[in-house]
C-alpha cells in the first residue's frame, strides 16, 4: 500500500511557474515508476510526465516538453513537477500515481493515486 499526497497547485497567470510535489508513504517509494497525470473538465485523464526508479529516465508529453520537468528525491519519498511557462490549456487537476503493470502512458497501468491538486492558469 502506498499513500500519495499532492501539493503545490494554485492560481497563476499565463507565463508563470508552479512546482507540484507528490509525497509518498507506505511501501518503499524508490521501487516505483511515478507519473504525473492531469484531467481538465470534460476531458480524459492524460499523462504529463513519468520518471523511473532512480530518476535517470524521464518521459514528457509533447504538450509540456521543454516547459515541465519531473524529478524525484527518494530520500524524501517525493516526486516533483516543475512547471514553467504555464498556459491556460495547462489548467487541470494534477495527479501523481505509481506504476503497477502495463503501458506507462496508460492511466489504467497505475495502481496508487493521490487526491489531486488543482492548477489554474489565467490568460
Overview of the structural elements:
The protein has 123 residues and is an all-beta fold. The chain has no helices and 11 strands. The chain has strands spanning 2-7, 10-13, 18-26, 34-39, 46-51, 58-60, 68-73, 78-83, 92-99, 110-113, 117-122. Strands 2, 4, 5, 6, 9, 10 and 11 form a 7-stranded mixed sheet that branches. A 4-stranded antiparallel sheet has the order 1-3-8-7, with no helix packed on it. A hairpin with a 4-residue loop joins strand 7 (68-73) and strand 8 (78-83). The protein starts with a strand and ends with a strand. The model has no long low-confidence stretch (mean pLDDT 95).
Rounded Rg:
13 Å
Main sheet attributes: strand count, strand direction, barrel closure: 7 strands, mixed
**Euclidean distance between termini CA atoms:** 40 Å
- Helices and strands, in order, run as EEEEEEEEEEE
Strand share of the residues?
A: over 45%
Count every helix, treating DSSP H or I runs of 4 or more residues as helices.
0
Shape: globular
Helical amount? under 10%
The tally of beta strands, per DSSP, is 11
- pLDDT averaged over residues: 95
Derived structural class: mainly beta
Amino acid at each position: 500500500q502506498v499513500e500519495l499526497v499532492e501539493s503545490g497547485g494554485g492560481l497563476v497567470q499565463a507565463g508563470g511557474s508552479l512546482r507540484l510535489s507528490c509525497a509518498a508513504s507506505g511501501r518503499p517509494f524508490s521501487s516505483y515508476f511515478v507519473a504525473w497525470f492531469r484531467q481538465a473538465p470534460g476531458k480524459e485523464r492524460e499523462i504529463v510526465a513519468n520518471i523511473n526508479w532512480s530518476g535517470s529516465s524521464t518521459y514528457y508529453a509533447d504538450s509540456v516538453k521543454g516547459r515541465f520537468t519531473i524529478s524525484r528525491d527518494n530520500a524524501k519519498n517525493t516526486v516533483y513537477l516543475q512547471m514553467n511557462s504555464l498556459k491556460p490549456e495547462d489548467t487541470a487537476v494534477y495527479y501523481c500515481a505509481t506504476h503497477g503493470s502495463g503501458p506507462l502512458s496508460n492511466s489504467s497501468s497505475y495502481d496508487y493515486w493521490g487526491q489531486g491538486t488543482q492548477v489554474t492558469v489565467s490568460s
